[in-house]
Amino acid sequence: MKDFLNVILYQPLEGVTLFLYHLFGDNFGIAIIVLTVLIRLILVPLSLPALKSSQKMQELQGELSRLKAKHKDNKAKLQEEQLKLYREHGINPLGGCLPILLQIPILLILWRVLTGLLAQDSINSHFLWLNLSQPDPYYILPALAGISQFIQSKMMMPAKPKKEDQKALEKTSNPGKKEDDLGNSLTQAMQKQNLYFMPILWVVMLLRLPSGLGLYMVVSILFGVVQQFFLNAGRKEQLKTQSSKVKA
């Protein structure tokens, strides 16, 4: 397995990083930034469908809560109805796992690549105020990572519909129940926990990690913010069109 990862990830990442380093005038910081963007672009075909599925699942929390209340004594029927609901809306419940599973080995291998290259005397490890082989002395990267992650997590939370749109959509849905409210409250509580947990986690981790890896994470999160912005804009336009059809 180790040899497989070396051939598939370590050697290509090391080669591309060195190529970008020399391409941009022996500037390791720029090399990391460009490498990060390239990695995220390669993962877009996998991450985008997963983000769309996650977005749709958040919008279906009310319907999922109704199913749980209706079939609370029949787990087999509940699973069957949930899968049916996912199929109707084109959702893959496990789709969000693949991009995460791919990024974990990439992050670990990249850590090895950066620490290995930055340990070489021939590599210029200085970029702006940073020594990329050492943690950020001014904690700017950890702060940027935390703030960017908070923004991204906030953007991933479902927006509350306008009152007029909600009334129009309620015409085609069943009246709400106490079970629905409880389910939605639990979902919102979990979303709020994630909203603060991930930013704090990245801040704590990057306080001790080499700033080269911190630079990678900041650029990666910022890429995710931009990607989520366009995804939300497209989904907002789609929901607006659907709402107009309901009103008509």
From TrEMBL:
<dbReference type="GO" id="GO:0005886">
    <property type="term" value="C:plasma membrane"/>
</dbReference>
<dbReference type="InterPro" id="IPR001708">
    <property type="entry name" value="YidC/ALB3/OXA1/COX18"/>
</dbReference>
<keyword id="KW-0175">Coiled coil</keyword>
<keyword id="KW-1133">Transmembrane helix</keyword>
<dbReference type="GO" id="GO:0051205">
    <property type="term" value="P:protein insertion into membrane"/>
</dbReference>
<keyword id="KW-1003">Cell membrane</keyword>
<dbReference type="GO" id="GO:0032977">
    <property type="term" value="F:membrane insertase activity"/>
</dbReference>
<keyword id="KW-0472">Membrane</keyword>
<feature type="coiled-coil region">
    <location>
        <begin position="50"/>
        <end position="88"/>
    </location>
</feature>
<keyword id="KW-0812">Transmembrane</keyword>
<feature type="compositionally biased region" description="Basic and acidic residues">
    <location>
        <begin position="161"/>
        <end position="181"/>
    </location>
</feature>
<protein>
    <recommendedName>
        <fullName>Membrane insertase YidC/Oxa/ALB C-terminal domain-containing protein</fullName>
    </recommendedName>
</protein>
<dbReference type="InterPro" id="IPR047196">
    <property type="entry name" value="YidC_ALB_C"/>
</dbReference>
<dbReference type="GO" id="GO:0015031">
    <property type="term" value="P:protein transport"/>
</dbReference>
<dbReference type="Pfam" id="PF02096">
    <property type="entry name" value="60KD_IMP"/>
</dbReference>
<keyword id="KW-0143">Chaperone</keyword>
<dbReference type="InterPro" id="IPR028055">
    <property type="entry name" value="YidC/Oxa/ALB_C"/>
</dbReference>
<keyword id="KW-0813">Transport</keyword>
<feature type="region of interest" description="Disordered">
    <location>
        <begin position="159"/>
        <end position="183"/>
    </location>
</feature>
<feature type="transmembrane region" description="Helical">
    <location>
        <begin position="94"/>
        <end position="118"/>
    </location>
</feature>
<keyword id="KW-0653">Protein transport</keyword>
<feature type="domain" description="Membrane insertase YidC/Oxa/ALB C-terminal">
    <location>
        <begin position="28"/>
        <end position="232"/>
    </location>
</feature>
<feature type="transmembrane region" description="Helical">
    <location>
        <begin position="215"/>
        <end position="234"/>
    </location>
</feature>
<comment type="similarity">
    <text>Belongs to the OXA1/ALB3/YidC family.</text>
</comment>
<feature type="transmembrane region" description="Helical">
    <location>
        <begin position="30"/>
        <end position="51"/>
    </location>
</feature>
